[in-house]
Amino acid sequence: MNMDTCVLTLVVGLLTLGGCSARVVTVSPGPLIRVEGQPVSIRCDVSEYGGPREQDFEWLMSKEAAGLARMKIISTFDNRYSHPSLTKRVASGDIAVERLRDNEVELKIAEVKSLDAGFYWCTTPSTDSVISGNYEAPVKLTVIPNTLRVSPLTPPSAVPEGSDLTLSCNVTRELTRPTYLSVTWSVKRGATSEEILAFGPQGDVVTGAKYARRYANGGIRLVPGRNGLFELVISKVTTSDEGIYECNGTEWTHEDGGKWVQIVTSTREMGTVAVTPTGQSLSVKASSSSPSSTPLLLSPGETLTLLCSVAADNLPALALEVAWLADGRDVVTMERSGVVIYNASSSGAHGQRAEASLERTDAREYRLGVRGVSGEDAGAYACRVRAFIEKGGRSSGGGGRWHMAAEKTSTPVTVKVAQTKPSFTVALEAVLNPQMTAEPTELACHVTNITHLPLGGRLGVTWEHTTLPGTGSDPQASHPIGSLDGHGNLLPGAMYSDRLKGGVVTLTRVQPDTFKLLFLRTQEIDMGQYVCSVSAWSVNSQGDMVNAAEYQSSQLAVRWDTQRPTLNVVAKRVREASVGGATFEMSCTVATGNLGEAGYSVLIQSQDSLEGSVRTIMTLSPDNVLQHGGATDPNRRDGLVLTKSGPVEFRFRLAGVQLSDRGFYWCDITAWTKQQAGQAWTKATNAESNKVKIDFQENGPSFAVALRSDSTVVYPWETAKMECSLSVSGSSPKTGAHTDDLAYEVRWFFTRLRGGQTTTQLASVDRFGVVRKDTRNSSSDVSAERKDTHTYTLNIHGTQDSDSGEYHCVATPWYLSASTGAWTQAGELTSSRVFLMVRFAVWESLKLPLLYGVAASIGVGLFSLVLGLVCAQCCCRNTTHTPRSRNKLMDLEMD
User: Which residue windows are coiled coil (predicted)?
Assistant: First the structure.
């Protein structure tokens, strides 16, 4: 099979496959019922067709179903297609065709007329290669007259908040065809309109999004009536329900395929509805049940009766909460459910009020009763009413929820209770007046001329303090110190709470009519004006203590001349250290002024001379904590003692004094105070004592030191030796040149020749023979040894050029004192300096390299001579000798 045959077979197969589909033209399902004067739209589409994607359409119309006499309406491709009777309507746009897609169009009639009723045909010219299927489809259009009537009833222009609003609307039409009705209510606020509820066309109810919950809770009800009357009831209206209400009636038709189509609609404005707030009509009045003068005057023990009258336009729709107030405080409250709540914590100006009751006598009146009134029940009584409305829905709430619509408080009624107040006189005096800081202060508050104090009555007191100017506080501010109530309970003030709890400030009742205030340690901030206020407490009808009267004393000034505290310290020698090894003891006595009770910290300090640096030997804190200073030798701490020997006396003891201990000693003492127990120490003042000198001459041996070296010049890597020799003379009875009563501490020092004049320690030998070497930056090494009692040697192994410099030794003798039997340190001895030179040997350095060079030169020369001779012999041995010719003439010519 050739290529042309294959292509032809493929084309025929495709054409055959394409011919299997059949063209399908469909229109809107009918029959269509429309209302005269309303717009009509009829859709038409084609599918399963061949040819171009975009298809053309033609619309025709006939009065009969057979369609024998069809009238051309409009075409998508021919502008002159329309029948002459329809040309004007097509030109004006009353009849038009709109292409929705390539294969779908829509015939539109802006205002259908009764003569437009009939059968409409949608045809499509053929573009298929094979004619198959249908090319046209009809639909019937029925046009009925517009008989829809919407007649709303005008609602009231204003309704009280909380009442019901009924919206009535009548919707009718003449039933000539199977059509259906629906009614919709909406409210317009400004430019926006919200749909409330729609009923129909199938009898179903659809609510707006914001009204669904309210409808479900019964806040909105639909009441269908007869003869097309429909009523919508909105319960419990609020101010948010205000607006312009509208009623909409719609006529529907149900087409084949289950689709509901709206064929005509009409909207009518019902009217504007305003909601009157409850607060505009709510009124509250408080009055007395018995006619009497204002203010109402009662005697103690009588019953107080007051009435609260409530009025409102929508009172039946309101739930009321009624409360009686006395001087602005709740006395008793009746909730909207009818439950009465008594405010037990409500009290008058001087104590708790009497028992109260509240009852509802009718729908508009509430009665307050207070039995057994006393002076505490006097005041201004007012009735407060809170009106609640049950919310009927909307997006923010639902049925059963309440919101407060209004609150009103009546004009108060003044109630007075005649009574005789207790009377007395209060006087304040100073029992202890401080003359300086930290001294005690005691004030007494006396109550005299007491009259009309009821049986079982008690007295209470309140102390107040006003600081003086310049003490760091506002001079006008009055600070409560504390109070004792009628039961004797202590109520501390905020600023004095810690001092009262700590016991440094006390409030006491020493007698029924006498109160005292005591400061154990008066501070500077306690200076100022003091006042005591005494209150009389009586027992009311409920058995509670109430404040009946209160009187205040005149101000009492507490102040003194503030002087800075002074401190004087005197040091004296208790035990003299006349010889080495003896014990030195010194005492320091403190004298104070304007200080009072205090604690002391002590520093024992010393210096070698009056110009020398100060060293701290020991310290003692105010809490008697002992510490050693940095200048104390740890090995001698057992011989140091610092104690408090008296209230203002301290003793320092130094056992086994040495020559290095000679110098000046004194006490540095600081006085510390505490405001109260448990607080931190506060520094008051500081002073130093006079200086006590330790100066003794020990008749012990005399020492000398000398340094010598075997050689002052060495070569590298050799060992250098230096010997430090000590001598003794004038020994004590216990000290000899060859006894165990003598020991030395020896240290070796080196000053580098190059790289600066810094002196470093190389090694040391203590008096017990222990050797210690210091770190060195050199490849050489050092060692130290004790040869005998008086001789010490320093060895430098593997000397280097960096070891060149000056060397000396320092020795400290220790000997056993003949007078005290204790080891005594003698003065430090420094030897003379020995200079050590590490010399570089030039000949010794060059001798071997020169010998090696000469030997190498001779060897190379001899080797070269022998090699030359051998080469000459080998090259000349193969040369051929030619005998001279006999013909001499020829030889000569050749030559």
Answer: none
